[in-house]
């Protein structure tokens, strides 16, 4: 039953912007959905496409990548690398039957605590609508 | 849950585990009197290339479809590449056509040679009545001598090295592109082709000589070839050039009737108007027949659309060979057996004649001064839509048919592989052999071997597997009593030993 | 006493056997070195005999081809029980191979495509005769998803040198770490004859499809703007496709440090384009029209996602 | 080499009730105890407290722990604290991972069950991750002793002098032709009413004469490379066309200018006076060197000037009309940003009539009017030449306002009171202060307010609705009417005045985003530079070696600014005197056996930290240049590139941990 479905989101936040924004959301006591759990990386440029697919394969219903705004990357252009991978990955996901709303790349600066709430709440809503992403059941237990 | 009637039946399963679309299987059902009621030739596996080709890029098809068969990948690669020429409406430069045909004939020499020595060979060279455990490549070596065996192996190695040289890899080549090939042939490579081609011609002549010595000079063999058990009067199809001479790489497809007269001749692009495919609910193999005649079940004769491809069919469908030595052999072949030849086992002889042709053709092309021209590509400019390509694979005519969207992504893919053309004839051949050899439920080694020979003469690509050493197709016959319980199993396995239990 | 060896194939094309035959003169040595107790072509009736063997009676089993039918699954399990070592031989057994692209569809879709609505049936009865066809799984699986695998021999097919080295290693008695892929643990560029033409600054404003270009026969293919997966692909093939003047398509699979070949290859290729705005970027990727077929040509079943999502 | 047997200790913090209120800390701790490799799991009120850290130190010894997970607050707050605890406990500090269950759980979620579930997931992820951690060593980077101070206001001046007096060499770079900043414009300072010039100008000339200070006015930083301890900064010096070293400051050239009357609006006086094309911002300017403004100088515009200035300068030859901009590359170890603020543009609130009515002034303009050295020599005369009889001061213009800036600018109340006093003093006018709240939190502030009350300044509580010249009553004729709801009296009043003073607030400078990018720091929401921690690191930024002083960080008055400048200088000194800084070991490195030399990594690195070694055909990372973003690691197609603290194994383990029962 959809109302009982709690989407699970794995969020990769860059250390300098989005992770700080999440900290700010915390110190500002902004309330948002508890469905997203954060993996901290130094830069969105560290997010390997493998991480995203691993998350989907292990049962994440959505994956969120948070980086600094264009031009604001703490490492100058890591966020652009993230954007490039994201665009190509989206096309691969389409072929694999995974809706593009399940993967989001968001620019959230250290100042945008509330943006963290908006994005995560939105995403949770969308995922509730899309329902769970169950990947194909394992063929067999390995002996 | 078996029905009462079925439990009364007896079943024989001949299960040569084979390839291409998986493992071929022969089911023979006996009636209560132990006579053959019905024999089925089953292909129980399917890999769905036609489906997952959809969405792939057209240019990747020559490499993807070659994975249908690792024994004749070059055939698929080439048919696919020719389909791409048409898809992009681009004419390869002459040198590119020559390089393709050169590589293709090199591959034909290798494949035919291997078949004769490692697969067909044992039956004839060693002898059909020789003890089963000798009927394998080791037996061949014993008969023809170790250095000949060494020569066969070395020959194969050199030929495959040549393919790799020009096409990147021997198994699953990569050089085919719409409008040509990926790279020109270097001077030193051409020299190597010329040298090996000369050896190949010599080798082919030697093989033909060997065949004449051990087979044609033995009355038993000729009788065997002529025996009605292995004779089916069907239509024959093969690719021919402008003078109706046999060609593997390119040309029109010529179909001759059981009486040997040309029944029709068409461009590969028109295959769909002439060839129909039908599926039977009990096998994954689709059976081809001539649309113009129609399907009359698993039967031969001019009324039945069943037709045949591969060496014998190609010779029947052609009016001659494009190379001198092969032409001689061609004349001798029909001189001996009359034209057309309906004896399935004559395939072995026909194959060696083709072997000789391929070697000669290889030499012709290798000597062509133009073969090293650098201009091996015509770049496509037209938008892709639809393309059909065909070649003569070792085991018969092979069609690749693609449709794409404007970005060149495959939207529809239809493949007719050599053995599908033969499937109907193989089935009826198997059934005929079974009826002729099994009576009162009596089954013995002979039957196994005969059925095996009927089957293997086509070198069905399902039999590709048996190209592997030691090169003898194992068979099993399971005779089942009431309740389908196995009374006794009789089998001849890879090492040629007979087991009875 | 010679080690007992078994050969078996699941869903494969026969190219792996050809690869063994391509040892040419070497083949006879192999046949001489081992005692072949189980020959794949004989599988159906000999399966019974294999069952009769003691567990672990076979020293080493070479299995090529992916697992796609219940029958192949049984055989794989049987061989696992009876063998001390199981070697996944070739790309299909290791990664799923090109037939693994079938994981973009389902058994049903395949049957409909090939035969229309009423195609072959699992069980068919005709005047009292019953014929059965084995089940086709919806997905193709690499061997190690069916059974634990001790070693892997990569390649489609494995190159003769890789085969020779692998056999030598395995028969030598000094065994490598379980799970080892028996090929150099480096990317293909390492043995690429064109590696010196590889530029320091990789940066593209678009990619070309191989049929749109006449490729220079001496220069790095990736540098010519055609996606070549050499940098992501394990070495050992001898850069065969490159010498054919065609890009590497990744049949040797990833190195030991990469878990999902296609994901990593995509990640790497996507990193080296120039644009920074989304539309620009999309334009640059226009020519990568089939990402799955490009990056997962041989490895879809062994990827994290394994197959297209089943609705 | 990581230890064979992994023995993990997990510590879950209550943070008083900050975490415990929403997360069932006990449950989390009990859950952690059940996880693989966990030999000890505790919960404690304040893990960051000394007894909390002591727990870890003790347990490491008594339970032979070799991995530590602390579930508490953000690693940005206490990662360093706990790593140090490990170190003291005799364990490599990087055998540690921190779980953020406060900022990312207890503070942002309400549902206790879900918050607790999330906390457990995060702890599971950390436990899996930490098992892969390897012992790492921090690198050391030497600190170049020179310091760059950007901005020559009171903050920059004070910081520069403090450092220079401590014997460090300082480059003080100022955009304007003179240092002094906003303070130089003021007449008196609140609440003591001592003269701004008297306290500022001595410091200004001290800067000028200090041997350890290189003063570059009329200059800008255009490029910053490098990293803490080793910044390479490119400074562009605009030509003032008068050589600072040759000029004696006699100012003869000003007199000699062909412009007999000054015609150009004087920026320093906010356009309340005029200057010549060759000018000096104000008499006490430092350096005492005129500037030629090419925009207005005839010679520059037409080339047809007699250049009498040059003649006037005579053999000093200080004037060089062909001077070019000069670029200087300097190396510094630390940077102090003291770029200040700008005042709110009153024209943005048209209903207060600024720009429309000549007698509406901004506070800063009035600062100049009341200033003895100002355009009117301290006479408060309005644009129409009259002296005001009644003056209305409007507080919170561009502060505490949803439509402009929401923040309180902190200084407006006090400077409004100061101006009220000064205006009264200079004119005896009747003064009205229109305020929302009077904020006087500072030493002597409230007393000053009382003093003003006694001086009979009228305080009207209410946000002014508009300033208009629309006359409803003869008494309003020719005056400006201030409409305001007097929230104490409880009705709307119309108060006619001669002069209106708008107490404009403080806002980030327009070029703040540029500066932020140059120095790779962040801005807070309102646009002021973001400090590393509002309480524990108020002058630090997230970029090591870059410090903040003054109003570029947030509005503040002079005492606070000077205090912060001192603090920033002290932070810089601490680094310099230590001689080195320890760097995070989260750099990338190449596993050479795997590297095939495809060079993908090289095009990834903006810092050129990756070089290629042709002889071995492998890439190599310069760990000093590497800033540890990990972009090359993700891009490396063969997995040969790796990153300390962010290894694939560690991140995959974390992902699996999060999703284990998903």
SSE topology sketch:
The complex is a heterotetramer of chains A (143), B (501), C (311) and D (662).
Chain A: E1 9-14, H1 18-27, E2 36-41, H2 49-58, E3 62-67, H3 78-95, E4 103-107, H4 113-130
Parallel strand pairs in A: 1-2, 1-3, 3-4
Chain C: E1 4-9, H1 15-21, H2 25-33, E2 35-38, H3 43-52, E3 58-64, E4 67-69, H4 70-82, E5 83-89, H5 91-95, H6 107-115, E6 123-126, E7 129-132, E8 136-141, H7 143-146, E9 151-153, H8 160-172, H9 240-243, H10 261-271, H11 278-285, H12 291-295
Parallel strand pairs in C: 1-2, 1-3, 3-5, 5-9
Antiparallel strand pairs in C: 4-8, 6-7
Chain D: E1 8-13, H1 25-33, E2 38-44, H2 50-62, E3 67-72, H3 75-88, E4 96-100, H4 102-106, H5 112-130, E5 139-142, E6 147-150, H6 154-165, E7 170-173, E8 188-189, E9 194-195, H7 196-209, E10 213-216, E11 219-227, E12 230-237, H8 252-256, E13 264-265, E14 274-275, E15 278-279, E16 291-292, H9 298-301, H10 308-313, E17 326-332, E18 334-337, E19 341-343, E20 360-362, H11 363-369, E21 390-397, H12 412-427, E22 430-435, H13 445-454, E23 458-461, E24 464-468, E25 480-486, E26 491-497, E27 499-504, E28 506-508, H14 512-519, E29 546-548, H15 558-578, E30 580-583, E31 588-590, H16 600-604, E32 610-613, E33 618-621, H17 631-635, E34 641-643, H18 648-659
Parallel strand pairs in D: 1-2, 1-3, 3-4, 6-7, 6-18, 7-10, 18-29, 20-27, 21-22, 21-27, 22-23
Antiparallel strand pairs in D: 5-30, 8-9, 11-12, 12-17, 13-14, 15-16, 19-28, 24-25, 25-26, 31-34, 32-33
Helix pairs in contact in D: 1-5, 2-3, 5-18, 6-7, 6-15, 12-13
Key terms:
heterotetramer; B: 501 residues; alpha+beta; 4-stranded mixed beta sheet; 18% strand; disordered N terminus; D: alpha/beta; FAD/NAD(P)-binding domain; 5-stranded parallel beta sheet; 18 helices; 34 strands; 28% helix
What does this structure look like?
- The complex is a heterotetramer of chains A (143), B (501), C (311) and D (662).
- Chain A is an alpha/beta fold and 143 residues long.
- Chain A has four helices and four strands; from the N terminus they run βαβαβαβα.
- Chain A is globular, with a radius of gyration of 15 Å.
- The model of chain A is unreliable at 135-143 (pLDDT under 50).
- Chain B is α+β, with helices and mostly antiparallel strands and 501 residues long.
- Chain B contains 15 helices and 17 strands.
- The longest helix of chain B is centred in the first third of the chain and has 33 residues, at 94-126.
- Chain C is globular, with a radius of gyration of 21 Å.
- Chain C has helices at residues 15-21, 25-33, 43-52, 70-82, 91-95, 107-115, 143-146, 160-172, 240-243, 261-271, 278-285, 291-295; strands at 4-9, 35-38, 58-64, 67-69, 83-89, 123-126, 129-132, 136-141, 151-153.
- Chain C folds into three domains: 4-100 and 136-171, Rossmann fold; 106-132, no CATH class; 188-302, no CATH class.
- Mean pLDDT of chain C is 88; it is low at 41-46.
- Chain D has a five-stranded parallel β-sheet, with helices on one face. Chain D has a five-stranded parallel β-sheet with strand order 20-27-21-22-23. A four-stranded parallel β-sheet of chain D has the order 2-1-3-4, with helices on both faces.
- The radius of gyration of chain D is 31 Å and the shape is globular.
- The model of chain D has no long low-confidence stretch (mean pLDDT 94).
- The chains are: A alpha/beta (143), B alpha+beta (501), C alpha/beta (311), D alpha/beta (662).
- The interface between B and C is large, with 96 and 79 residues.
